[in-house]
Design goal:
Helix content is 38%, strand content 14%. By secondary structure, it is an alpha+beta fold.
Length: 259
């Protein structure tokens, strides 16, 4: 039984759709990618020209789609995205603007290292930036945080400035590990990955919210209020039940219908 089946009572929800052509699949994926950017804009994850989402192309897995440099997240559409290869060359899509060089180095290394990763999100969101200064993972403080239990979460405990070298991108991919889906980047921000852009985007919003909750808990704990953690067995069980790519894909779907 899948996690989605376990929490469903009655008629099951539809899963990730299948497509009759690569073109239809690509269009669906890019529409959801643009929708994720609009959600990020509404949630205040924008910071200057920083931040990017990448999406592996369904036809050529050695290329991925990314957003153009300098265009506001809330204005992005599927037709704005750029297709780049692992050498950093634009090979398709809308090439009227450049891609983000730092974004290419981060995402290119991730997609190379993790064939199971089809999408990745990275922005300088406010609570993620704040919590990243501690170079600590979010703790198992509540049911929602259990999504990031164990090897699912990593910490990149270095900061080398804006990523402009292949080596830095490769170090980030190594730090995430073979099973990681979420990472705290010290003095930098957050990064999440998934099998779909829906999953990666949902995990990002959940990690950002978890950082916010963690900061509130730390403030209370500083006044002498003890923390009560979720036990390891309970956290592992909860993680198993919620760490489902299909469920994560369905959660943010209504947001993609927003103008």
């Amino acid at each position: 039984m899948t996690a989605l089946e376990a929490i469903s009572q009655g008629t099951p929800l539809a899963g990730i759709p299948s497509f009759t052509s690569i073109e239809k699949q690509r269009h669906w994926m890019l529409e959801h990618m643009a929708g994720a950017f609009r959600v990020f804009a509404r949630k205040g994850y924008t910071e200057g020209m920083s931040g990017h989402i990448s999406l592996r192309d369904p036809e050529d897995p050695h290329t991925f789609w990314t957003n153009p440099l300098g265009k506001y997240f809330g204005l992005l559409t599927a037709g704005d995205m750029i297709l780049v290869n692992y050498e950093g060359k634009a090979v398709g899509g809308n090439t009227s603007r450049p891609a983000n060089a730092a974004g290419f180095l981060i995402h290119g290394a991730l997609h190379k290292a993790r064939p199971d990763v089809n999408a990745a999100c990275h922005t300088h969101s406010p609570y993620g930036k704040a919590w990243s200064t501690f170079a600590r993972p979010v703790e198992m403080l509540n049911q929602d945080a259990c999504m990031f239990y164990g090897e699912t979460q990593a910490v990149y405990d270095q900061f080398g400035g804006i990523v402009f070298s292949d080596e830095e991108g490769e170090r980030l991919a190594t730090a995430l590990g073979p099973k990681g889906k979420a990472m705290i980047l010290r003095n930098h921000g957050l990064l999440t990955v998934g099998s779909t852009v829906d999953e990666a985007a949902y995990l990002f919003t959940l990690l950002e919210r978890s950082c916010e909750v963690q900061l509130m808990v730390e403030a209370a704990a500083a006044n002498g209020i003890p923390k009560q953690y979720v036990g390891d067995a309970e956290a592992a069980y909860t993680h198993k039940m919620v760490n489902d790519a299909v469920s994560a894909c369905l959660i943010p779907k209504p947001f993609h219908l927003e103008d």
